[in-house]
Amino acid sequence: MLSSLKQQLIKALYSAGVTGSIELVTPPKPEMGEFAFACFNYAKKLNLNPAESAKILVEDLQKEIAEIDILDKVEAVGPYVNFYLNSSLLAEKILGSITPDYGKQEKKNKKVLIEYAQPNTHKAFHIGHLRGTITGESLSRIMEMCGYNVVRVNYQGDVGMHIAKAIWAIIRNKEKYDSLKHSSVEEKVQFLGMAYADGAKAFESDEKSKAEIVDINAKIYKQDKSIKEIYGETRAWSLEYFDKIYIKLDTHFDRLFFESEVFERAIGIVKNFLIEHLFAESEGAIIYRGSTQGLHDRVFLSSMGLPTYEAKDLALAELQFKEFNPDKIIHVIAREQTEYLRVIFQVLERTLPNSRGKESHLAFGWVSLKSGKMSSRSGQVVLAEDLINDINKKILGIMEESDIKNKEFISEKVSLGALKYSFLKTGVHNDIVFDLEESVSLSGDSGPYLMYIVARINRILDKAGSRNFFKKLFKKKNVLPKNIDSIEKQLLMKLAEFNDIIKIACDNHDPSKIAQYLFSVAQLFNNFYHELPILKAENEDKKFRIEIIKSVHIVMTKGLYLLGISTVKEM
RNA sequence: GCGCCCAUAGUUCAAUGGAUAGAACACCAGCCUUCUAAGCUGGUUAUGUAGGUUCGAUUCCUGCUGGGCGUACCA
């Protein structure tokens, strides 16, 4: 928003004799001005110490900046040249720029496929899937805001050994399975989770069971009659359950890909390229020798002739390019698969040359629990559903004494906000340590803290009779007070950063940049709210402050939207 | 063993190579006859270790220590 002003200042610095690339920084304290230029490199060129060169530069700048009317003064402070902006003109400029479209960037005419969630049927939807899903939806919204044509896709594993393990256990507990047919989807899925855990355990510990599971796996691929009914039924349970979760998380997909629709083609691709010696035979399996390229060797076709995840990914990529012809594909997948995906991308350069440079992996960090590592094999998984319910309970507790209506509705929105924020506020690549005792944070640097800002502003605007504040925003008459408080100026400057922050989040594929920014807006707003009266302020001040809170409302609502969080009117 | 990633306050997280390393939680002391106290104000506490590059290093490089992940028929 203030980039044109920055450009003007940079131009002035060049005219004053600065060379090389120039970057303006924000001074650490508001009383030090709004922008600053560090003179270290400049001083080197002049062969002076930085503080002296800053003084000289300020002298040389006087002529250049005379015509920039928004600039109040320029001052040398130690090794920095600090620029001080006129509060009134700045406020006018910033408030004028914050429209309901604020943050939206020009169309880029680029299609990006964002693949996320990727749960496997017959297994739990756990805390790791939750992070991936929340991250994927947020990234989608951010990239849309930045002008990309985003296609949301999901790739769900509905064939393979994990299914065989579950079905093996289900067959041995057929009575329970039969009894569940009219139960809730939650109960059904819980049963599947247990079955998977049992099957996985038997697979590890007992050779006979292992052989049986391997046999079932082959039957799944062949759609063998003996398991077809159970397979179809339980697959449907999982998918119904996933849909409920996606709706709850406020995400959706333009296309659901399944392993079952790509595995045949997967075998074909591997066989074709075996002839071209891209793959090799080893111990009865067809493998790719990544080790010759500094990567891992990976099995693509098992010794039973069945495709592994590796092979299926080749066919998936082919299908994704065929259907959507994207400029870029981002696979939002946990970090532990980084080296695996490097192999896949390398193989794809041969099997699908068009994919070169377009496939990418957004590796999100591990979600661990303070009480220990999470694993669906041990059966001690933290289910997404349980976590959400747990948070909801705590929020209802907090709301107990309030006289707000619709408590259930609001507490659900607030718990989802709390959950999403707690996952997104940490850098996307970094691990998150989750304390189940404390659940997610509900105060301080938390989702509810941010949502609370919007609720507070709504209340004030209601009382001020500005319900239609979006319309009113444009009909204002630029009533600005003569004295603008430092806190008001800081808040406005922060609001002006929104566009830059969105761009950074988009370029880095990292929603945490938005989350951290919104928190700083919220802190400044709460400062402002406590320091300065709004409705009881004098005429000009009151109008000005109402304009400010409308702008805060826009930025907070949009920013939270980018995190996948919808706000509530009151809380 | 080899490869990739990480190490900042009691805890969980920030910090394009630059101004006094910021927050939140927890703990202590205050603030509701005044726009929602899920809030605000004040207080205590940190860059794993040894070197190197630089005017300047939490940031870049190397060794060490301590963690996480990956490493053939799972996904």
Automatic annotation (TrEMBL):
Residues 3-85 form the Arginyl tRNA synthetase N-terminal domain. SMART domains: Arg_tRNA_synt_N (SM01016), DALR_1 (SM00836). Gene3D superfamilies: Arginyl tRNA synthetase N-terminal domain, HUPs, Isoleucyl-tRNA Synthetase, Domain 1. GO terms for molecular function: arginine-tRNA ligase activity; ATP binding. GO terms for biological process: arginyl-tRNA aminoacylation. It holds the Pfam family tRNA-synt_1d. The keyword Protein biosynthesis applies. Keywords: Aminoacyl-tRNA synthetase, ATP-binding, Ligase, Nucleotide-binding, Protein biosynthesis. It comes from the Bacteria. InterPro entries: Arg-tRNA-ligase, Arg-tRNA-synth_N, Arg-tRNA-synth_N_sf, ArgRS_core, DALR_anticod-bd, Rossmann-like_a/b/a_fold, tRNAsynth_Ia_anticodon-bd. Residues 450-571 form the DALR anticodon binding domain. One of its GO terms (cellular component) is cytoplasm. It catalyses: tRNA(Arg) + L-arginine + ATP = L-arginyl-tRNA(Arg) + AMP + diphosphate. Its EC number is 6.1.1.19. NCBIfam families: argS. Belongs to the class-I aminoacyl-tRNA synthetase family. This is Arginine--tRNA ligase. It comes from Candidatus Magasanikbacteria bacterium RIFCSPHIGHO2_01_FULL_33_34.
